[in-house]
Amino acid sequence: MKLLFAREQIGAGLAWADLAPALPGWEIAACAPGRVADFLDGADVVCPLGAPIGRGVIEAGTFGLIHQFGVGLDGVDVAAATELGVWVARVPGDAGGNADSVAELAVLHLLALTRRLDETRAALLERRWADRPAGRSLLGATIAVVGLGAIGTAVARRLAPFGPRLLGVRARPELGGPPEVAEVTGTAGLHGVLRRADAVVCCAMLDHASTGLFGAAEFAAMKPGALFVNVARGGLVEEDALLAALDSGQVGGAGLDVYQHEPADPDAPLVRHPRVIATPHAGWLTSMMFRETGAVFAASLQRWAAGGQPCWRLNAPEIRRWPPGRG
């Protein structure tokens, strides 16, 4: 069996070859995100990571499974895969350590913004001891967590010990939220929640309904000077609107780990903005996540290779490419 990763490496110090013990007898290959079609020969499983896997790539290969090493499948044409007999699966955030890792970075961004970390460090380095900036506190603040799936729940649980009042927004409010969240509102009530929040953490899933969830109207609805953190997907935010809100001071600061276009341009005005803390979509990228996700990812592949259904599948093709990778 051959597994193709659509990225040469997951991150510095981590190698796809480290998964070999969990996939005995498998060939593990990797390529650049834009060259998947050139490396499909003999591939039984394709792991997309950030690469687009559209109809053309699916038709060009003989693989029987597209399996994400994590949650996001934004660039995968699930409908075409289903039509062409290819399974599509992923690893939920709460199954492989992804949600915990992303939640930690969300808290890091929020703390760095509230305590004005960049400005405070600059004051020390520039010997402006008497002019060091005063920060805010999470104690007693109101924080809105938008999206209460695995990541939003993990964020709420980590923020609760700091002493804020937590409000939740989710597409299906009837599902409620973790006990740390005082109120849960549907997306129709988003603006009302934004008016009350000192900080907003976006953890929502990206789909057709949520694209551009945060635009000019939403930033205008926020409490003046409120903070905004996005650790979900860049497509949830209209970046021009966020930039304008930062320039005007309507948004007091932003922590961004995801962008509309990735890799993000390091010279983009939003990335370079003095009130933005920007990281390169690294929330999920920890050694713990790699280890935990690797174990359940490999188990799902092995289950499929043995003739079963992959774990956490998104589709159920009626006519399947079988045996795997052989047409």
Features:
5-stranded parallel β-sheet, alpha/beta, 327 residues, single chain
Structure commentary:
This protein is an alpha/beta fold. The chain is 28% helix and 15% strand. The chain has ten helices and twelve strands. A seven-stranded parallel β-sheet has the order 8-7-6-9-10-11-12. Strands 2-1-3-4-5 form a five-stranded parallel β-sheet. The radius of gyration is 21 Å and the shape is globular. It starts with a strand and ends in a 22-residue tail after the last helix. The model has no long low-confidence stretch (mean pLDDT 95).
Counting DSSP E segments of at least 2 residues, the number of strands comes to 12
Uncertain runs with pLDDT below 50, 5 residues or more?
none
Please state how the strands of the largest beta sheet are arranged side by side. 8-7-6-9-10-11-12
Shape: globular
User: Could you give the order of the helices and strands?
Assistant: EEEHEHEHHEHEEHEHEHEHEH
Structural class label: alpha/beta
DSSP summary: helix tally: 10
Average pLDDT number: 95
Largest pleated sheet: 7 strands, parallel
Estimated radius of gyration: 21 Å
Strand fraction equals 15-25%
Distance between the termini: 14 Å
Helix content bin: 25-40%
